[in-house]
UniProtKB/TrEMBL annotation:
<feature type="binding site">
    <location>
        <position position="213"/>
    </location>
    <ligand>
        <name>substrate</name>
    </ligand>
</feature>
<dbReference type="GO" id="GO:0006094">
    <property type="term" value="P:gluconeogenesis"/>
</dbReference>
<dbReference type="InterPro" id="IPR020861">
    <property type="entry name" value="Triosephosphate_isomerase_AS"/>
</dbReference>
<dbReference type="GO" id="GO:0004807">
    <property type="term" value="F:triose-phosphate isomerase activity"/>
</dbReference>
<comment type="function">
    <text>Involved in the gluconeogenesis. Catalyzes stereospecifically the conversion of dihydroxyacetone phosphate (DHAP) to D-glyceraldehyde-3-phosphate (G3P).</text>
</comment>
<dbReference type="GO" id="GO:0006096">
    <property type="term" value="P:glycolytic process"/>
</dbReference>
<keyword id="KW-0324">Glycolysis</keyword>
<comment type="pathway">
    <text>Carbohydrate degradation; glycolysis; D-glyceraldehyde 3-phosphate from glycerone phosphate: step 1/1.</text>
</comment>
<dbReference type="InterPro" id="IPR013785">
    <property type="entry name" value="Aldolase_TIM"/>
</dbReference>
<feature type="active site" description="Electrophile">
    <location>
        <position position="98"/>
    </location>
</feature>
<dbReference type="InterPro" id="IPR035990">
    <property type="entry name" value="TIM_sf"/>
</dbReference>
<feature type="binding site">
    <location>
        <begin position="234"/>
        <end position="235"/>
    </location>
    <ligand>
        <name>substrate</name>
    </ligand>
</feature>
<dbReference type="Pfam" id="PF00121">
    <property type="entry name" value="TIM"/>
</dbReference>
<protein>
    <recommendedName>
        <fullName>Triosephosphate isomerase</fullName>
        <ecNumber>5.3.1.1</ecNumber>
    </recommendedName>
</protein>
<dbReference type="GO" id="GO:0019563">
    <property type="term" value="P:glycerol catabolic process"/>
</dbReference>
<comment type="subunit">
    <text>Homodimer.</text>
</comment>
<dbReference type="GO" id="GO:0046166">
    <property type="term" value="P:glyceraldehyde-3-phosphate biosynthetic process"/>
</dbReference>
Amino acid sequence: MTKTLRPLIAGNWKMNGLRKDLDEIAAIRDGGVKVGGAVEIVVCPPFTLLAAAASLCEGSGIGIGGQDCHPEKKGAFTGDIAPPMLKDCGATYVILGHSERRLIHGESDALIRDKIKGVQAAGLAAILCVGETAEQRSTGQALAVVGEQLAGSIPRDVSIEGLVIAYEPVWAIGTGLTPTAEDIAEMHGFIRAKLEESWPGKAATVRLLYGGSVKPSNAAKLLAIANVDGALIGGASLIAADFLAIAAACPV
Ligand SMILES: O=C(CO)COP(=O)(O)O
């Protein structure tokens, strides 16, 4: 099917990467420039590499993103990073509400909603992650869970233009498992419809990414699914050749 939105391929490095791994970011930059402007490529390294990664990628069209942030713009929050700090380092995107933050750090929809507000106020774009656990899927609650995450974590009073949503089933992350094409199409269609209910006429502009065990070998199939406008990639984004192969698999 024809895709109308510019695909976004985003790499989430999670808690991986030392300064020596900036070579991999340079390789993503060099290869990504060849993939051309048809696909938007963003790398989200750990905070410690953000500024260096951004300066490596400056002017290349390859974007840089953070993996989390605090909702406030500054203050007495030891160990936290504020949205304007990410912007100051050269980031343009921030991943929010990743299941590893929801489950390991107990992040609630309400906190994620405040973070989205803070990120938008700083002029950054949020990549909001949603997704169900294996148990929630096996008991038929996947759509309800994601519906609740969307309703609870997207502030009603903000524009959704520029917002990116990543559907990442928890059970597919780092496991090698992926949902069926039918299940992904159903979920992405559901997310689009939910956005349309609250922001009539705007939902079609929001890119919906799929994330969870995306690899070069399954990327073309996953990226061709209706309402899949790109991917959020963990493990495979650490290897420039694999990440670029996924970007090259976008149907553009
Ligand atoms: O969590 C993910 C991206 O945010 C997906 O991780 P994997 O690609 O390693 O399954």
